[in-house]
Amino acid sequence: MIAPTPATDSPRDSYRATADTTLIRGACPHDCPDTCGTIVEVEVSEDGQRRAVAFYGDPNHPITNGWLCGKVRPYLDHVYHPDRLIHPLRRMGPKGSGEWARISWDEAIGEIGDRWRGIIAEHGAAAILPYSYSGTLGLVNMGVSSGRFWNRLGASQLDRAICGAAAEYAVEATLGARWAVPYADTAHAKVILIWGHNPASTAPHFMPFLKAAQRNGCTVVVIDPKRTRTARTADWHVAPRPGTDGALALGMAHVIISEGLHDEAYLAAHTVGWPELRARIMEFPPARAAEIAELPVEDVIRLARLYATSQPGLIKIADGLQRNHMGGQTVRAILALPALTGQYGVRGGGLAYSTSGYLKWDGEAVNKWHDCPPPARAVNMNRLGAALTGEAADPPIQSLFVFGSNPAAIAPNAALVHEGLRREDLFTVVHELFMTDTAEMADIVLPATSNLEAPDLHKGYGHTLLRYNHPAIAPLGESKSNWDVMRLLAAEMGFAEPWLHQDADAVIAEVLAATAARNPRLAGITLERLKREGQIALELDDGAPFADGRFPTPSGKIELYSQRLASDGHDPLPGYSGKFDDGRMDRRMDRRRLAGSSDISSGSRRDDGDPNDSRFDPGDALSLITPAAHHFVTSSLANGPSQLRGEGAPFVEIHPADAAARGIDHGMMVCVENGRGGVMLRAVVTDGVRPGVVASPKGRWSKLFGGRNVNWTTSDALGDFAGQSTFHSNRVWLRPVEE
Ligand SMILES: Nc1nc2c(c(=O)[nH]1)N[C@H]1C(S)=C(S)[C@@H](COP(=O)(O)OP(=O)(O)OC[C@H]3O[C@@H](n4cnc5c(=O)[nH]c(N)nc54)[C@H](O)[C@@H]3O)O[C@H]1N2
Ligand SMILES: Nc1nc2c(c(=O)[nH]1)N[C@H]1C(S)=C(S)[C@@H](COP(=O)(O)OP(=O)(O)OC[C@H]3O[C@@H](n4cnc5c(=O)[nH]c(N)nc54)[C@H](O)[C@@H]3O)O[C@H]1N2
Ligand code: SF4
Ligand SMILES: [Mo]
Predict the structure, then answer these.
(1) pLDDT score recorded for residue 11
(2) CATH architecture for the domain at 591-736
(3) Does residue 635 line the site of ligand 2, with CB under 6 A?
(4) Which residues, by Cβ under 5 Å, contact ligand 4, an ion?
(5) What CATH class does 181-353 carry?
(6) pLDDT of 237 strictly over 90
């Protein structure tokens, strides 16, 4: 397939094409709100071979603006990496031994079919678990490939709650939809609270807009236990203890109400539950909030006054903030602040979380539920280790099919995940570009295409642009896209439904048409136009989100008191429960305890720990957060030479006072451990983390660094809402080790 070249007559034309190359438009597939427009420069040899020779940001994409982040700029090194998997492989030695034999696709798919038919006969199709997440965010290769075939098969459903489930639930319950202030409207803000979010690394194209706002006189505050790259550019960095933001927000609300800075008229007109919330807020005087968050009370008061008196006031959050036991209620408490001050619907004020709610693909077109057996039981992806070692008992998981994810490196409680993956009776297939920590544990490895090699459609979650990804080059070796593998598996399993055999473009056209029939924001946006024009913006009203004062909740108002939460068994008011990880619990003890339990949704069993383990004195515990690495996207790109150079050796940041108390010097190797496991990291002694907190970025490939990463310590307990992961609720103990 030869993709068309982009238009070259645009007013801002600065493409670098030469007479010998073709330019192909694409979209960055990574889990990042910016969803950049990319340009691939392709050389076509005389015999028709296509080779990508340059890769850069599209100058005609209004968010990308001609530049890509440092992670993705060297993308051609990723595409042409010498370690790319290019043939299917079958395991020869014991699991994880690295002994492989090359096999054909026919053999690979035939063997998968044979194994699955046997498993289905004995246990039913629910004994097969697909595990996929954010390797690509494309409609076809993520959404549709994670739905249709698996639903038709009757496999276990995967509850995809590893990232932002609690915030999504909280925002939808409170405001009715995930709508966000556009990046460009940041210019109108007079104060911006960037709360538990690090856009300098995780949404880099927001930063020029933030700087422009600052030049306009906007005050920027970053609230983060770590002095991140974003915090360094802020006017004020506030560093609370992790997990205490709910109390901080309620304490700020207390100040706002006590000083009469709230907007009674707005609250009366646009909210439900204001009197009840008011009573709740009264439980959090600033002194109490300050004590919980371990901040000076003056800072709580100052922050509240600053936010309530500088308007428009924008609060920008992402998902790192809520990866703890109280993440959902934390977000609820924060969402109450713009309601108190009447900032929803004000241009440049209110909330910037995600734009995902403007366009949700038609679920039926994506998943074909009506043509499939009833959904089988769901397995929470955060509980993978537990599920593989007995928690998912009826039926037991006998086969795991991983694509677009690297659970051996990114899932919590890694020791238990590995214990599960080592099971001799577990038939594991991994579809990957590289021999990741997860692929190493497979029985069959299938080679996957990179983003340059397969078509797809992308929508941003930080903006409202849609962009088609034209394939630029042929698949490397024998690699195949996720969707092409689903089509092969469907044929192997004898499923004749045409919606399991369409090509990617037909899938896109169908989902677009089905979605457009219900969502006027897609009016007139067709596959043909997307292929021709580059990005197309959704049709949105001109005003700020919620400018008409209507919220798509059941009441039509902001639900400060949420009946939906009450019905789901949660505190219907924003609150703060003070629930933290214990850290002492041994993972095996936990599993034995679980053997008698059928409840996989509660996280409470983590609370009691093993108080007898003398290594773990509660008085010496530190709180470990594992934020985004600047140079990787979780574990994607974390095997790239320039990304690895940028990130350096795996490290943990620790405050000088905490380091001194443990005899840790800058540069020493330290053991970071708790009852779940441990990892060796290089100590970086810095006041860039607050006392009591240590920080080590997520995403390391264990196999490159002694076989372990920080997820050997993280907890697989679930958070307050929607089965949320709790990576940042993690208690650890540090000690120096001999080298
Ligand atoms: N460079 C890069 N970009 C990425 C990713 C990546 O791995 N690398 N990952 C992508 C993905 S999957 C996601 S979900 C997004 C995440 O985007 P972000 O949410 O911006 O990223 P995180 O680093 O996970 O978390 C943000 C910040 O929250 C802080 N934090 C942790 N716990 C707390 C707390 O209790 N309170 C407060 N106030 N702050 C807290 C951390 O120190 C961190 O600086 O980024 C995406 N973009
Ligand atoms: N300690 C700690 N761990 C965390 C987090 C944390 O905050 N702390 N954050 C969590 C979060 S927010 C997230 S979203 C998850 C992300 O975890 P994952 O969703 O697993 O994402 P990646 O680590 O990027 O791994 C994606 C894999 O998919 C592969 N891939 C890319 N494109 C394709 C494709 O087209 N087809 C196939 N078959 N494979 C492809 C890549 O090579 C890569 O190995 O990690 C979580 N892990
Ligand atoms: S990771 Fe984000 S900032 Fe980097 S190129 Fe992709 S979309 Fe753009
Ligand atoms: Mo994520």
Answers:
(1) 35
(2) Beta Barrel (2.40)
(3) yes
(4) 163
(5) alpha beta
(6) yes
